[in-house]
Amino acid sequence: MALLTAKPTxxxxxxxxxxxxxxxEGRAQMLGDFGPHxxxxxxxxxxxxxxxxxxxxxxxxxxYVPSVVEVIQQGSRLTxxxxxxxxTIPAHDADQAADPDDPIxxxx
Length: 108
Prior knowledge:
alpha+beta; 4-stranded antiparallel sheet; 3-stranded antiparallel sheet; 7 strands; globular
């Protein structure tokens, strides 16, 4: 699984999407990591985890590209294995604002 780190940027539409690795090397690495998942399984995931500094303030986002085997659906939420540890990803609720400290997952 790949780890891509992005620093926070300001975006009115999507703060997490604006944290997409800003440099070409990071984007190329993320897309390259999808190759085995899309070739073998035909799908993959992007998991975005906010990172905090020592004072608990936003530092950026870590982007991961786990395989379909590393992401398990349990009812309406997901659990992803990130760096050997289970990470719970809460279900999306269109009627409530997302907690900016919660991880999110995108199925590709």
